[in-house]
From TrEMBL, chain A:
Its main location: cytoplasm. Gene3D superfamilies: 3.30.450.70. The keyword Aminoacyl-tRNA synthetase does not apply. The lineage of its organism: Eukaryota, Metazoa, Chordata, Craniata, Vertebrata. This is Trafficking protein particle complex subunit.
Automatic annotation (TrEMBL), chain B:
The keyword Mitochondrion does not apply. It is found in: Endoplasmic reticulum; Golgi apparatus, cis-Golgi network. Transmembrane segments: none annotated. Coiled coil: none annotated. Part of the multisubunit transport protein particle (TRAPP) complex. The heterodimer TRAPPC6B-TRAPPC3 interacts with TRAPPC1 likely providing a core for TRAPP complex formation. InterPro entries: Longin-like_dom_sf, TRAPPC. The keyword Endoplasmic reticulum applies. It comes from the Eukaryota. May play a role in vesicular transport from endoplasmic reticulum to Golgi. This is Trafficking protein particle complex subunit. PANTHER family: TRAFFICKING PROTEIN PARTICLE COMPLEX SUBUNIT, TRAFFICKING PROTEIN PARTICLE COMPLEX SUBUNIT 1. GO terms for cellular component: endoplasmic reticulum; Golgi apparatus; TRAPP complex. SUPFAM superfamilies: SNARE-like.
From TrEMBL, chain C:
The keyword Mitochondrion does not apply. Component of a transport protein particle (TRAPP) complex that may function in specific stages of inter-organelle traffic. Specifically involved in the early development of neural circuitry, likely by controlling the frequency and amplitude of intracellular calcium transients implicated in the regulation of neuron differentiation and survival. This is Trafficking protein particle complex subunit 6B. Belongs to the TRAPP small subunits family. BET3 subfamily. It is found in: Endoplasmic reticulum; Golgi apparatus, cis-Golgi network. GO terms for cellular component: cis-Golgi network; endoplasmic reticulum; trans-Golgi network; TRAPP complex. It comes from the Eukaryota. One of its GO terms (biological process) is endoplasmic reticulum to Golgi vesicle-mediated transport. The keyword Endoplasmic reticulum applies.
From TrEMBL, chain D:
This is Trafficking protein particle complex subunit 3. SUPFAM superfamilies: Ligand-binding domain in the NO signalling and Golgi transport (SSF111126). It comes from Eptatretus burgeri (Inshore hagfish). InterPro entries: Bet3 (IPR016721), NO_sig/Golgi_transp_ligand-bd (IPR024096), TRAPP_component (IPR007194). GO terms for cellular component: endoplasmic reticulum; Golgi apparatus; TRAPP complex. May play a role in vesicular transport from endoplasmic reticulum to Golgi. It holds the Pfam family TRAPP. Keywords: Endoplasmic reticulum, ER-Golgi transport, Golgi apparatus, Transport. The lineage of its organism: Eukaryota, Metazoa, Chordata, Craniata, Vertebrata. It is found in: Endoplasmic reticulum; Golgi apparatus, cis-Golgi network. Belongs to the TRAPP small subunits family. BET3 subfamily. One of its GO terms (biological process) is Golgi vesicle transport.
Amino acid sequence: MAVCVAVITKENYPLYISNIPAANELKFHYTVHTSLDVVEEKLSAVGKTASDLRELYLGLLYPTEDYKVYGYVANTKVKFVIVIDSSNTSFRDNEIRSMFRKLHTAYTDVMCNPFYTPGDPIRSKTFDNVISSMMMQVC
Amino acid sequence: MTVYNLYVFDRHGTCLYYGEWNRKNTTGISLKGEFKLMYGMLFSLKSFIKKLSPTDVKEGFLSYQTSKYKLHYYETPTGIKIVMNTDIAVGNVRDVLQRAYSTIYVDFVVRNPLCSLDEPIQSELFKQKIDAFVRGLPFFSARVT
Amino acid sequence: MEREGVRMADEALFEFLHMEVISYIFKSLEKDDSDNGKCTAKLEGMGFRVGQGLVERFTRDIPRFKDELDIMKFVCKDFWAGIFKKQVDNLRTNHQGVYVLQDNRFRLLTQISAGKQYMEHAPKFLAFTCGLVRGALSNLGVNSIVTAEVSLLPACKFQVMMQRA
Amino acid sequence: MLRTESTKINLMRPLGQPALACAGYRWRENYYSHQRRGGYNIGVRIIEDFLARTNVGRCHDFRETADVISKNAFKLYLGVTPTVTNWSPAGDEFSLQLDSNPLAEFVELPDNHTGLSYSSLLCGVLRGALEMVQMAVDVRIVQDTLQGDLQTELRLRFLRRIEESMPAGEE
């Protein structure tokens, strides 16, 4: 499924980033980082145009040669980015949507852990498990 | 029909609340002394009744009646005791006392963090509610003959 | 019906816990004879963290907010109802970043008094909620200062002053 | 306007947090005793709320008590029904097993708090509530999902019946 999943704060620093293969870390960080500009752009259009961007799911941010980058921004401005391998063409929009829902729910649970300090990098086994379920089934 | 007075005791015998409506007599002793005697009497009555009963009692005693008045008694498993004296025409008021406990005592004493549970109740809101409750009872009548 | 029951239940639990937390904090700090300010600040801080978490959950299924007023309306309706089982009765603003939320029967005060009695105790029952609102707004990206004011229980006014960066 | 769908979970949230903050990140033992004492105070009041709302009468024996705790009290306040099990031969001790513990629903203990008995609040609540209905009971947590156990298990041991004392000043 996903090759990279990232959670970014409203101040644009990462709370969580996971990617496979791990060796490509730098590349993914770059990809995610670049996508944030597109996110900002899309968000700044909210309220200015009559488009339906009041939805939390932002859709495809941009495609590269190898990947498709999707975005989702919660009401609390926390950003979620999911990167899919371009070769994986069978993906439907609905599936991406439900992945984001899952991700958002998992993040909400993290926020509700009294031992978690908002803004800290996410270190949670439960969250890790959710993410890895989204990253598996690649091959 | 009418209501004379009402007592609420805690499990240790402290009188948490006392209110009177159409009570015309006095015992001639201080209220404090009266509370003590009342509780003592209830305590003895209750334990003796338990001893007399052929089977294990669940409800305990509910009321006693003289030719002039009737004393109604309700006790929760936590030992809160509500006592109401009425004239003798009043029937079984167990559900009334139970309602006084669940909708007034619990709501305005137990759920009021400023009320400690083992001291006489200071809350004006509680006093207003219980007064309105008693005055609203079908057998309450201020016009006593 | 079932769900209704469950909802009621948790409400009572929240109430009793809130009660106990307040009494715990005030008791534990009384010994150090420190001022009440410290206790209220602690309660406020707790509310802040809870507000942050709750708002994440409460806003998960609703469309993106248009503006600040939209956010405040959400706080008065969904957020308030989710926690206190009723909406704020009145929301006013000066359109310069000050909002006043009026609750005529504030849940955490309704059992305490209907009038002036216990007025001096009211602040400690409002501190957590002030924090709750500030925490929720902060997580929604709005920094604010939240204070509460009571002139007759159980009515209560929360004033939210936006802090512009 | 009410979002009933998620309210149950919503309100569990404010529970966990202050409970913890209540401990103020003190030492573990301290947390434990504070939670127990805090729980006790809650228990003392919540039992009245419970009786008022359920109209449950006095229990005849400890088995009935166990049943009421599980089927009525836990169900009412936490929305779960723990299994009553592992009775001692004398019938004075039993366990409440919870597959899921609503109090700890979102909790993950950090590495420096691994041994923390997060739910000890529950022990205090049960002890306080039962004491008000004249039962002195010892309650402890013997299994805890937060500690990696498969379920959470509370062990309740009946100590003695608290007899109603004669009012002061009476012979």
